[in-house]
Amino acid sequence: MRAVVLAVALLAFGSAVSGAATPARPAPVTVFAAASLTDVFPAIDPRETYSFAGSNTLATQIANGAPADVFASANTTIPNQLYAQGLVEKPVAFTRNTLVIVVPKSNPGSISDIYDLTKPGVTVDIANSSVPVGSYTQTILKNMNLTSRIMANVVSQEDDVRTVLTKIALGQADAGLVYATDARTVPGQVKVIKVPAWAQPKVTYALAVVAKSPNQAAAQAFVREVLSKAGQAKLQAFGFLPLPVGIVADTSLQH
Fold it and tell me: Which strands make up the sheet holding 190-194, listed edge to edge?
């Protein structure tokens, strides 16, 4: 009988030691991220919980108390605004992007360059200016002195870049402006037309830990994962651009 009791006690002790050696993984963090990060973030870390939408929409949700742990925006302006309000910790830049024109595979508008978007009868779909990609689009039009001529052909302005992409792929407009990385997600469904490099705005993404997150350590760990060599390599594999060498991670110093 004593042998049985001793065996049970040893088994219980062994289980306790085994449990101590393999601590439970922290609960997944909730990441609110720009729609253009829909494919790459789960590839960097599939264990987290993601909510993808327009950066401005997500920022409003965070301001209203939505339970997010990390915020990743397609620009630096919105995270800096939240930081100024004490809603997120100091943002850090983590990748870059460029804009391209996409047209349906059949190219019904016979679009070959951005100037063709001014032709009578051509229909254009863009994101609204409150969304980073929409703001970047307006910068391109302004830089090329095409704002009034192209806006005259705009038939819809969307809440995020993926909606623009979907509508073009479905042939609901002749052309749209999206991030280069988004165009890569629908191979064979759209044709890509480059925007002149000199007209491109500086498209820099930033992320930050939400100040009220109850999972600060895990949230910081996710930020470090994105900034790591492996995270950066994954971003570049999906078409995102590396930050310039020597860039200051403090996005409050960027414009």
Answer: 154-158, 124-127, 175-179, 99-104, 190-194
Provide the token pair at 13: 């002790």
Rg (CA), the chain: 23
- The whole-angstrom separation of Cα 22 and Cα 26 is 12
Are 99 and 137 a contacting pair, CB within 8 Å? yes
Q: How far apart are CA 203 and CA 205, in angstroms?
A: 7
Distance CA 234, CA 66 (A): 28
80 lies in some domain? yes
- Please count the residues of the chain: 255
Given a contact cutoff of 8 angstroms between Cβ atoms, the answer to whether 205 and 147 are in contact is no
Query: Tokens in use for 172?
Result: 């609901």
The residues, ordered by sequence, that sit 6+ positions from 230 with a Cβ below 8 Å of its Cβ are: 44
Q: What local confidence, expressed as pLDDT, does residue 247 receive?
A: 58
Q: Which of 36, 94, 135, 74 is nearest to 244 (CA)?
A: 94
How many structural domains does the chain have?
Answer: 2
Domain that residue 228 falls in: 30-96+204-253
Catalogue the long-range contacts made by 118-122 (C-beta closer than 8 Å, 24 or more residues apart): 118/146, 118/149, 118/150, 118/152, 118/153, 119/153, 122/153, 122/174, 122/175
- Domain check: are 157 and 34 in the same one? no
Of all residues in the chain, what percent carry a pLDDT higher than 70?
86
Q: What is the mean pLDDT of residues 186-207?
A: 96
Q: In terms of domains, do 86 and 107 share one?
A: no
At residue 14, the pLDDT reads 45
